[in-house]
Amino acid sequence: MTEKIITIAKVSLPVDESLKIQKHRILPEGWSGEDEREFEKNGRRISVVTGIHGDELEGQFVCYELAQKIRENPGCLHGIVDIYPAMNPFGIDSLTRGIPAFDLDMNRIFPGNDSGDMNEFIASKIIRDLEGSSLCLDIHASNIFLTEVPQIRINTLHKNTLLPYAMESNVDFVWVHGASTVLESTLAYSLNSRSVKTLVVEMGVGMRITREYGKQLVDGIFSLMKKIGIWSGKVAPVKRPVVSNDESGKDVCYLNAPCSGIFIKEKNHGAMVKKGEKIGEIISPLNGKLLSEIMAEEAGWLFTIREYPVVDEGSLLGRILKGETQ
Fold first, then answer.
1. To bridge 58 with a disulfide, which of 3, 115, 204, 302 should be the other Cys (CB 3.0-4.6 Å)?
2. Going by C-beta distance under 8 Å and a sequence separation of 6 or more, which residues neighbour residue 164?
3. Mean pLDDT by 10-residue block, N- to C-terminus, for the chain (326 residues)?
4. Given 3-state DSSP classes, what are the helix, strand and coil percentages for the chain, each rounded to the nearest 5?
5. What is the 3-state secondary structure (H, E, C) of 134-200?
6. CB 303 within 8 A of CB 172
7. Counts for the chain of helices (H) and strands (E), in that order
8. Distant-in-sequence, close-in-space partners of 252: CB < 8 Å, separation ≥ 6
9. Is 12 strand, coil or helix?
10. Segment 172-176 long-range contacts (CB within 8 Å, at least 24 positions apart)
11. Residue 326 to residue 300: CA distance in whole angstroms
């Protein structure tokens, strides 16, 4: 097995500093440069991307765990694995969702522009480097406010292409969004439009690492590597995810705070709830009063729950997939 650290984009900064976007490339042992070039652009290659949002850290453990497990059985690797742990390195260093100093969401500037500003230039280099991948996983966490079960979100425009891969990813939930929710400036949309099959993973909570979710997704990545022909080793059985195929979004019930206060949850994400069952309550620390009890408006699967307790009126408290009886 051969490993390389490759810089895919570099921009000079003041005071003799530079911004570098790097990837960890893992290759089968004995591959020549000719083999690598052939598979880099149009062959067996999986790309794992994370760190677009600096406060979403769940993917950091996935990058580590994936490399470690490949090293355990290097002879089973028959293609390229490219790992991009920090697309927004300054954001990760400062625990900032966007690109520091620019107040810019990196996932709103793709596909970028070689002749644009620094951020557009970097985005264009990222897209160019990912082109030719057989499959790409764009790993995100939730924000600091919500906890999510491991899930893949895909849009209806690419549903037929992506759903078979999502089913092999070992996640709990696959959520198909309607076309009206698609943002053309995201990495996933830009890559899918260029025939690079790209799955968007959401899991866990912002600014934290959930080891069990990371291990679960890594098992799914090996399953996908086997599916595209670059891994011959054993893979763990994958979960059969719940699939929400209602592109209108009407099968998901949103729970919002009716008032401001402190939210105390009574149900964890992943719980099955009945209609009218208590999810939590909003309290006032100032006067010691119960302000509101939060009840499930529909029976189903609570796949999102509020983690950060301070809420304002209208804050999202949870999501329920209606009628799901796991």
1. 204
2. none
3. 96 89 95 81 88 97 98 96 97 94 92 95 98 97 96 93 98 85 84 96 97 98 97 97 82 96 96 97 98 97 97 98 75
4. 25, 35, 40
5. CEEEEEEECCCCEEEEEEEEEEHHHHHHHHHHHCCCCCCEEEEECHHHCCCCCHHHHHHHCCCCEEE
6. yes
7. 7, 17
8. 175, 244, 246, 319, 320, 321, 322
9. strand
10. 172/239, 172/241, 172/242, 172/270, 172/303, 173/149, 173/241, 173/242, 173/243, 173/244, 173/303, 173/321, 174/241, 174/242, 174/243, 174/244, 175/151, 175/244, 175/252, 176/243, 176/244, 176/245, 176/246, 176/247
11. 9
Distance CA 38, CA 101 (A): 40
| Single-letter amino acid, residue 287 | N
Amino acid in the structure at residue 239:
K
In single-letter form, the type of residue at position 137 comes to L
